[in-house]
Here is the input.
Amino acid sequence: MVPEAPQDEPPLDREVTDPSERLAVRAGWQLVDAYERLSVAGARRVFGREVDAWRRYTDDTLARLTTAEGRASVHETENTQLRFRRVMDFARPGDRVFDVGFGQGFLAAQLVKRCEIASYHGIDIDDRYLAGSKELFADNGLTDASITLEIGDLYDLTRESVASRGADLVICCEVLEHVPDAELALRTLADALPDGSDLIFSVPLIGRLEGVWGHVSVFGVARLKQMLEGAGLYAHHVEPLSNVWALLVASRDPGPSQRVRAATHRPPARVEVPLTRSFDFLDVKAGDYAVRPDDAGVVSMTPSDDVTVTVRATASGGVMFPVPGLEALRLALVLTEVDGLEQIAIIARAGRKQTCRWDWSADEFPTGHLAVKVRPGEADGRFASSEHKNVDRTDQVELVMTVRDGGSAVISVAASALP
Here is the structure.
């Protein structure tokens, strides 16, 4: 008898057998999740250079189709062109493609014209696209190509109907978000996959395209994994695409995917730029500290060694030291006398303007050694960060103690800044 897993353990993902492919899929899921937990603008700040590299690859390798005047549409945007390019990257010469949701025929034309596929059969529930698609094929010299289109419903697909077309690649991009039951739709697609065939599908990332009225549901990593499991599918490839979609390659076979292994992709152009202007922390010398000008009567300071000063305050006040910009700051504090201490503030300034501030307030401060690390907009568990602006221009940091009336405080300070 196999023992039941403890109820508090998370369910195991349904994964492929090849270790390298498995790890790549896990990384893909994590990237999709990261995109979706960021806003569109936030993801652009983090991943924008990578997306731009994929768009350059698309511009360099995908020729635009000839279209009748006035027909250029959303299918000609850089996002959609990149989606076409990535689907084409997974197509192989000789493929027989079955496309669920052929739309205006742009992907069909690109696949037939550029990928040397053997045949293309597309279905769509909307008969308004038939005439325009055929016109597009004619404009691009594909009148005699092996392309067939018909009106059909995803939910009516069977393995026999798909296999009758000899399909070894089934595509269903930008469809599942439109249908009333996406789980049933994916199960139908999975059940209709002929043996040895692959499924490529895409859905919008959460937070993207949600203003499109025809999109009736959103997905996300957790739901997509459940949908794949419920459909009996294995993910062989997962990627966020153009900060708009999640693109997946799946099949009913857990073995290694030759399609994924043979897929083309963008050149290995390096897109990363340094996160910081400097890579080395600079210790503040004891001789660089000074009592703030307005605090000379209530704050005194004595060097303890080359990089440490001891600060004594009989009223609120503090010390300051210069920095050549500020990416991060760490402090080694020794709190010796804290009976009168109410708050410690770290204030970064550019000239007279505050660029950031971190505050630590407590009813009772602990004595002893304390290591502090702060970054603009981040807290270290004690110091809370305020809003920050132009922190790279910071030229001075202040350490300020708020002392109650009649009280006093003694703190030793050593500082090290990452410019």
Q: What stands out?
A: DSSP finds nine helices and 19 strands in the chain.
